Amino acid sequence: MALIQPVILAGGTGSRLWPLSRELYPKQLLNLVGEHSLLQATFSRVMALPGVSAPILVIGEEHRFIAKAQIDALGGQQEIPIILEPMGRNTAPAICAAACYSQAIHQQPVVLLVLPADHLISETDSFARAVADAVSLAETGQLVTFGVQPTCPETGYGYIRKGSGDAVRSFVEKPDLETAKGYLASGDYYWNSGMFAFRNDTLLKEMDEHCPAISAAMAEAVAKGGADAPFFRLDPTSMASSPSDSIDYALLEKSQHVAVVPADLGWSDIGSWQALWEVSDKDENGNVASGDVILEAVENSLIRAGHSLVAAVGLKDTIVIETADAVLVAPMSRAQDVKKVVDRLKKDKRDHYKVHQTVFRPWGSYTILEEQENFKIKRITVLPKVKLSLQMHHHRSEHWVVVKGTARVTCGERVFLVMENQSTYIPCGETHRLENPGVIPLELIEVQNGSYLGEDDIVRFDDDFGRQG
User: Fold this and answer.
1) Is the pTM of this model over 0.70?
2) What are φ and ψ of residue 363, in 5° steps?
3) Which of 381, 378, 397 is nearest to 436 (CA)?
4) Upstream peptide bond of 427 is cis (omega within 30 degrees of 0)
């Protein structure tokens, strides 16, 4: 069997799982089922396969440090390559970039096993068998997709219409309910899982033929990209010139060399709250509850409490999701429409679609406690032996009060320690830096004052994480 090069696609925002999933902390990074995030579960599942090399992770710039920390938390000594996308261009450019990159590092044809980072697969033995079948087909020059046998008339998935043998007759869009019922009754359709296997040289040859603009742009993005270990940064100008398209539209619907492997995997893309309810363990009344929840005469519902007590009475087939700054309530039948709320938030320019009240950074995290005109209060946590960038703000001053640990502060030409119950003041326009020299997390309260308090008012002079600002 050829060497298998897993490619884990970790882009996307999971907007139908709002308010838990948001742009800066999307669903693949969340612990939705079990003790690990979906990304961690995907990584572990792949590494258990025989004959695989270290997975290539393709992810956006803004998620790189969280994703790396989650992979590192799993243990293991092997450093994985992480390709950073400067912008989202859908799956065809991402997969093309991974194929070009794999050619550069292996110097020989390998079979790419392309997997989304945010899917649930409960039948790991069946997964391994399906991968072996797909790899065998891929070695013959086929572009292989994994087809999941449908169990219900699902309207949230695309479908694959099978032909004779392993051949694919067509790909079809997400159907309405009546059409989905017809697909299920015919027995001729699979759910399109979004998982693929193909040789990297086969893929690139087919892309040159059927979507040359993407192929050329992404080959250039890799050739002009640069290593920033463990990251590889695609060239942003080259990638910006690539059309945005899915691998299905750009290539698979056009190619004459597409095959399907049937896969009974206990699979779900967890694309909505209803999908999560369907795959989760339920109580005797059909409810899935987590957090501080009290239920009275509630049936077949999904109730999640993140920060407050949530009490529900007399609900049926209902979704209730509570986070620190937002609450979602919807009938289970409207789970797909949560995305419309996210679209509305974007239109209204409200940050609730993008960030949580707690925002994670490579150095730790901050939580917004209160924000009004001209002032903002944050709780800041800095990891041990880590420092923030040397920076300056044009429009705000900052007052820091240390509540736990010890801070090393640079303010202008001075470098000094601030202990628990002590404070310091950073004037507007002053160069400054915050560092945790200790072995326990540093926690402090920051009070910002000024005419503009946006996170983009940062001029960075030096940064351990390669960020610009």
Assistant:
1) yes
2) -95, -10
3) 381
4) no
